[in-house]
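User: Predict the structure for this protein chain, please.
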Amino acid sequence: MTAVARRSLHTRCCASWEALGTNVVLRTVDPTALQPARRAVESELEAIDRACSRFRSDSELSQLNDRAGRATQVSMLLFEALALALDAARMTDGDVHPALGIALERAGYDRDWQLLPPAGEEPATADPWRGVLKLRRRSGWRSIWLERPTRTVRVPRGVRLDLGATAKALAADRSAAAAHMVSGCGALVSLGGDIATAGPAPDGGWRIHVTDDHRSDASAPGQTVSIRSGGLATSSTTVRRWRHEGRTMHHILDPATGAPANTCWRTVSVAAESCAHANIACTASLVRGRAALAWLRELDLPARLQEPDGAVTTVRGWPAQQAAPCASAAAVTP
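Assistant: Here is the predicted structure, written as structure tokens:
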């Protein structure tokens, strides 16, 4: 197949749009399946937004937060998202958990990230986050009560939930599965660099370029890898940043302090059996710093961890770094 033919096929098998405050990329192996697959993905994303958004006053999550201290029956989708978030807390010993809503609000993340004041340049300091938030509270995630038979939830008073660490990855997994179900062919969904696949992969697998920012153009440095199933997630402290009270913030909080994590990693990418598990491992690795290397090896998860100076460490069979950057950013390449 010529390069022109490959580009034409890529265009007919790919759709891209904005949702959930980020970029959505959908790929299908069969070009005739793209439109029904897109409708299925759009339906899943709307459902997850109605259930899990912290920025919609009419979302189920917002209503649940407003009823803190009282038992509340929730939808199956929100219950699934909450169960995943608590699984993440248990898997990471609390390094990733859903009870950080108040800390995020105090850090200025009280509306869609795209509406926040842009980040500025900060002078180098030993600990740029010291004293920023003065928030130290015991994590309230252990007191969140779920009853599966009745889908009843009780959030403790003084806790506001945020599902940003896991709900987007769950949406990617659900969307890929829905696209595959309606199309009958292999499908891939990327939500802001959180990538999920379902069904048979194309020849050679799904080619994905990982880099700091999924919105970057083809000149961005990074590495192209290939996966045939499961998911791949990339988290970075360099992209989702904003200005608050004279400081530059990022969205990866350290639960021990309630402040943005003072991590040794700039960007972490992980491949796993699902996008949700990959995303949980990425976020926890940024919080854990150097200790993440042994933890990822113990979990047997292929990962790529990049330091601020560009140095890359890989674990558990992640492919060796290429000599030069390849095309596309944190998404599928043709």
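The longest helix spans residues 34-52.
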